[in-house]
Amino acid sequence: MCNETRNFAERESGPTKNYSMENNKSEARPSPFSQTFFHGTKADLNIGDFIETGVSSNFGQNKKAKYIYLSATLDAAIWGAELALGEGRERIYLVEPTGPIEDDPNLTDKKFPGNPTMSYRSAHPFKIVGEIATWRGHAIEQVKAMKDGIERAKQLGIEAIED
After folding, report:
1. Where is pLDDT greater, at 17 or 80?
2. What is the pLDDT of residue 19?
3. β-sheet with 91-97: strand ranges across
4. Per-residue confidence band for 62, with pLDDT thresholds at 50, 70 and 90
5. Would you call 23 exposed, middle or buried from its count of C-beta atoms within 10 A (0-12, 13-18, 19+)?
6. Which value, in Å, is the radius of gyration of the alpha carbons in the chain?
7. Is the confidence at residue 109, as pLDDT, over 90?
8. Which one of 107, 123, 160, 163 is at 20 to 30 Å from 26 when CA atoms are compared?
9. Domains along the chain?
10. What is the pLDDT of residues 10-61, one digit of tens each?
């Protein structure tokens, strides 16, 4: 990863998130030949930290999560950050899985067969190796429509997370 800030904006609409990239050279560099993924959240974490299972899920009944989620696409991570519960700043971390990952069945089996969103889950921690400094979120109307849909599903008793 370069030491410079990069603009990873994918869309022309929506609010721009412009946060500083943290760079700790002793901990921020990905391991050689490791695939780096994205993880969107509102959690305030540091490079070198691990994202782990066992914390309250952002979706469904907010029970303790058995899996954590990551994506190879920035767009899916942006959705993760925008839809995450809490009042914290929306963040997108660059992460490396520490164990096996599998297709996210919430998307690949139900909404997008074949996993075009490149979304995955794991029962193993993800190591944070960086944070995206600049990215453009979805249009406010899109985020509202998505949150409204999640609320409707919740009212109908539809769980978003499969164990």
Report:
1. 80
2. 35
3. 50-51, 126-131, 91-97, 37-41, 68-71, 119-122, 102-103
4. low
5. middle
6. 15
7. no
8. 123
9. 34-155 (3.20.170.40)
10. 333 333 333 333 444 444 455 555 678 999 999 999 999 999 987 766 655 5
- Distance CA(67)–CA(54), nearest Å, equals 8
The C-alpha torsion from 82 through 84 and 85 to 87, rounded to 10°, is -50
Cα-Cα-Cα-Cα torsion 23, 51, 120, 152, nearest 10 degrees, comes to -110
Which residue is listed with tokens 């999640």?
Answer: 150
Q: How is residue 133 written in tokens?
A: 């400094």
**Cα–Cα dist 98/127, whole Å:** 7
- The angle that helices 74-83 and 140-155 make with each other, rounded to 10 degrees, is 60
Instruction: Give me 19's structure tokens.
Output: 């946060």
Please provide residue 155's backbone torsions phi and psi, each rounded to the nearest 5 degrees: -65, -30
Q: Which of these, 1, 5, 4, 2, lies nearest to 36 by C-alpha position?
A: 1
How does strand 102-103 pair with strand 119-122? Answer: antiparallel
Residue type at position 42: K
Amino acid identity, position 10: E
Helical H segments across the chain, by residue range: 25-28, 74-83, 105-108, 140-155
> How far is 66 from 100, CA to CA, in rounded Å?
14
